[in-house]
Amino acid sequence: MTTLLRISDLVLETGSAEAPLRPVSHVGFEVSHGEAFGLVGESGSGKSLTLRAVTGLLPEGVRQAGGTLELERDGVLRPYRFAEARGRGIGMIFQEPMTALNPTMRVGDLVTAGPRARYGWSRGTARSRALDLLAEVGMPDPKAQARMWPHQLSGGLRQRVMIAMALATEPSVLLCDEPTTALDVAVQDQILRLLHRIRVERGLAIVFVTHDLGVVRRLCDRVAVMYAGQVVETGRVDDVFTRPTHPYSAGLLRSMPTPDTPRDRPLAAIPGGQPGAGERPEGCRFAPRCAHALPACAGLEHALAPVLGSPSRSACLRVADLGGPPLDRKALIV
Amino acid sequence: MVALVQVPGRRRVRRGSGSAPLLTGAVLLALLLAASFAAGPLTGHDPALTDLTARFRPPTAEHWFGTDQLGRDVFARVLVAAGTDLPLALLGAVIPALIGIVLGALAGYARGWLGTAVMRLADLIQAFPSYILLIVLVFLLGPGGGSFLVGAAVGAWVTYARLVRGVVLRLRELDYVRAAQAAGLGHTRVLLRHVLPNALPQAVVYAASDIVLALSYLAALSYLGLGIQAPGIEWGQMIAEGQPFLRNQWWVSVMPGLAIILVGVAVRLIAGGLERRLQR
Amino acid sequence: MTGRGRFRFVGKRLLQAIPLTLVLLLLVFAMLKVVPGDPALQVAGPRASAATLEAIRVHLGLDQPVWLQFVHYLGRVVTGDLGTTATGSTKVSTLIASGTPVTLVLLAVSTVFTVLIAGATALLAARRPDGLADRLINVVAAFGVGVPTFWLGIVLLAGVALPTGAFPIGGWGDTPATVLRAAVLPALALSVSVAPVLMASLRSGIVEARRSEYHAAAQAAGVRGWTLTRRFVLRNAAVPPVSLLAALTTLLLSGAVVVESTFGLPGLGLSLTQAAQNRDFNVIQGLTLVFSLAVVAVNLVGDVLVALLDPRVEV
User: Fold this and answer.
1) Helices vs strands, H then E, count in chain B
2) Do chains A and B touch, with touching meaning 3 or more CB–CB pairs less than 8 Å apart?
3) Containing H/E element for B247?
4) CB of B233 within 8 A of CB of B145?
5) Can you give the pTM of this predicted structure?
6) CA–CA gap between residue C169 and residue C67 (Å, rounded)
7) Nearest Cα to A13, choosing from A53, A43, A68?
8) CA-nearest residue of chain B to C27?
9) Boundaries of every domain in chain A
10) A299 by DSSP, 3-state: which?
């Protein structure tokens, strides 16, 4: 598999130029063709901002202060211009389908607005393509629903429209920003199945931003764990979920219920809270909450590095010391 | 009179206590009002003195705003007119505010036919364009400052009534008002203690901007010959008097308008300052 | 809303306007009852005998019960009979018929100016919220609201019409070209005080639309350029101002009354002020009716437009 999208050393800043805050600092990851990649973390970890930066749609007041964003085209990875990549190559699905669909446009017009503006599709082409797309995302009655307004649809159908809109420009990678968070549990499952099916049928790469580890385990091939604006661990989902190489990932996993968690035992929570962009400690940002922290952890920032005896990469200084599988989640359960 | 959802200049952007603009605006108005009583000594010209040998003098160091068709000093007359315009504009804003607060409270508490009637009346009044309402009322009552005040009161109470009614309806649902009522406090006490403090900041800001509106209505009425009549002196009336001489003696008409604009700026400063103070 | 739903909405809104119209008619009719002086005395003159006065009362229907008088009044209004002017020379309906086109043209040109001024400044201001242009425009707008329309009209006369000679210094025209030329300056004076209100609403709508998720989502889906501005910014930003439209037109109508006097335009407003000066009751009564019905109609149209633009407005 060849690399389709590469983000390296991404730095996002906010606030004044003299004393900027960095909600995202030096984040990097790669996504291959057809791969499902998960970006997990708590809210405030910078995962959604990272995703927005990939499309150049940062909220007001946040700016990209560094980093390269590259997309494969004709077999070569090269930096891209946002305006170009958005309609060709990169598509995006937003968290809240109610606010992400223009309330003053009919569903059918909305779905093909992108290619119409870009390729000058005729009204007729746009209409028939819209019906195809609506059918592809499983709208029960595309003809009728194309004539409806977004507010007339249920949350699940709205998210399907959102997906159809993103697919209209035939992207090769689909960025999904918590695509199911705003939905009912039953509908969440349908949308996840749909995304999986589309990915397989179209050979799409998908980047999932989520705080739901279950979604990652179910759908993703590889994962990057973000904490306080940095990636602390990245690797194959199988590896990270069974043998996490960073105490934070291990903690996250422990706080996730599994079928074999006894009902009466409370889920383990990591003590303390994630530091905000203005209150980040020197050195390892997780150190103040980490049970394994040494004085040295507070001193120097540790970049992602390969882990001996694991295919994952970790930002934990003590990975080697802790040795073998010391961070195996079972071993860590207190 | 039409209640506008959003008036420019009301946008909240800046920080600061609001004292500086509040003070600047208040001092401007106070100076203008004080000057209206001392127009003669201040300008060195008797505002009422006609001097046909000094007709239509253009603005000079001697006559800042020039002289009019009867040789009267326009600057002195503009200052004197402030003594008519400012108090009437102030009353034209305050009276409807008081009426609106009372009627709004009434509409909020008496939720039966009385409340409905008050609100329907408000709808009805808003169906008339403000000048037409004023002109009709002045027609029925005869021209003059009193008729203007009645017209302003009939037209402008609606905004305050809606505001206060909204606050009352919101507070009615809150526990502490119910508790206060249960504790035997009368409607009046509840109104004074709970409703007014909540509605007042916004009402004061409205009233401050309404002074500008009231002034422009008064000036327009007088300009049309339906407001202050000679020998009273009023800015709009001065503008009308000068209009026939616009071709060669523009200052007679144009200068009084500057005073209206100055009051507008001062009042907006006050309103902005008040809003900032009250919002904290 | 489906097409049929909209149709029903319009119908329902029309029905709702009927009671308001009746109340307005009643109010205008009641003006007669509160106006000082005896109408019969005014018709007959002060030296008329009691018998003459009585005859005139009967002739005017003043001896009948009030409700019957109202019914008769309604009948006359429906047939377009609003009486004659005080001098008896002209029918009020003729006066209205000749003044209406003038006022309508003035309103139309003012609306165009208002929308152009407000639209351009709003786009400029919204480009960088709280930037220099935005603040400057906000200050100028605050200033513009406080400038008296009639005074601005005079300044335009003195500063533009007289020196350039490109515009008449008052009065109306008789060909489309002269009519438009006569309407330009009064319309400009009128728009300056109204445009700031529309500008503020448009500006915040544009800023809000640009910050919205649907705007980002459209960009992510490749929408760009004019399509993005038109369908994902302006269309959304137009919804709140359209709901202001009725209020703005009322404001323009109100200002037109004054500005017509400044420029001597023979419209409804000039007739109204002249009638008020001459204490011409029939004219005042007829014009009040026309103006208030116009406002009812404007509100009706405004509501329907909002429903057309914003599909979320439910019936």
Assistant:
1) 11, 0
2) no
3) none
4) no
5) 0.78
6) 48
7) A53
8) B124
9) 1-89+171-220, 101-164, 244-332
10) helix
Burial of A144 (0-12, 13-18, 19+ CB in 10 A): exposed
As given in the structure block, the two tokens for residue C20 are 């308001």
Residue B185's pLDDT band (cuts 50, 70, 90): low
Chain C residues inside the 8 Å CB shell of A151 = 311-312
Q: Please spell the DSSP secondary structure of A171-188, one letter per residue.
A: -SEEEEESTTTTS-HHHH
Strands A62-73 and A36-40 turn out to be unpaired
Q: Which CATH superfamily is domain A1-89+171-220 in?
A: P-loop containing nucleotide triphosphate hydrolases (3.40.50.300)
Once rounded to an integer, what is the mean pLDDT over residues C217-225?
Answer: 90
Print burial letters for C235-257: b (CB count within 10 Å at least 16), e (below 16).
bbbbbbbbbbbbbbbbbbbbbbb
Domain ranges of chain C: 37-81, 93-309
Nearest to A270 by CA among A256, A281, A258: A256
Between CA B217 and CA A262 the distance in angstroms is 77
Strand runs (DSSP E) across chain A, as ranges?
Answer: 3-14, 21-32, 36-40, 62-73, 76-79, 90-93, 173-177, 205-210, 222-227, 230-236, 305-307, 310-314
pLDDT of the residue at A36: 94
H or E stretch including C171? none
Classified as helix, coil or strand, A80 is coil
Are B257 and C151 in contact (CB < 8 Å)?
yes
Q: Which residues on chain C are in Cβ contact (under 8 Å) with B225?
A: 273, 277
Instruction: Tell me if chain C has a CB within 8 Å of the CB of A104.
Output: yes
Q: Where are the extended beta strands (E) located within C41-80?
A: none
CA distance A12 to A61: 10
Q: State how far the Cα of C159 lies from the Cα of C168, in Å rounded to an integer.
A: 13
Nearest in space to B253 (alpha carbons), one of B267, B237, B268: B237
Tell me which residues of chain A have a pLDDT lower than 50: 324-334
* Buried/exposed A173-190: b ≥16 CB within 10 Å, e otherwise: bbbbbbbbebbeeebbeb
Q: Are A2 and A33 in contact (CB under 8 A)?
A: yes
Pairing of β A3-14 and β A21-32: antiparallel
C292: left (phi over 0), alpha (psi -120 to 50) or beta: alpha
Does ipTM surpass 0.95 in this model?
no
The pLDDT tens digits for C251-285 are: 898 889 999 999 999 999 999 999 988 888 889 88
How high is the pLDDT of residue C39? 66
Q: Which of A148, A135, A142, A207 is nearest to A178 (CA)?
A: A207
- Residue A116, chain C, CB below 8 Å: the answer is yes
Name the more confident of B175 and C17: C17
User: By three-state DSSP, how is residue C224 classified?
Assistant: coil
A214 near A181, Cβ under 8 Å?
A: no
- In this prediction, residue A267 carries a pLDDT of 62
* Cβ–Cβ gap C221/A88 under 8 Å: no
- Looking at chain A, which residue has its C-alpha nearest residue C2? A148
Contact C85, C282 (CB under 8 A): yes
Mind listing the domains of chain B with CATH numbers?
Answer: 2-278 (1.10.3720.10)
3-state secondary structure of A156: helix
CATH number for domain C93-309, candidates 3.40.190.10, 1.10.3720.10, 3.90.550.10, 2.102.10.10: 1.10.3720.10
- Calpha distance C237→C1 (Å, rounded): 20
Which string of b and e fits B210-247 if b means at least 16 CB within 10 Å? bbbbbbbbbbbbbbbbbbbeeeebbbbbbbbbbbebbe
Which chains neighbour C (Cβ–Cβ under 8 Å, 3 or more pairs)?
A, B
CA distance B230 to chain C (A): 15
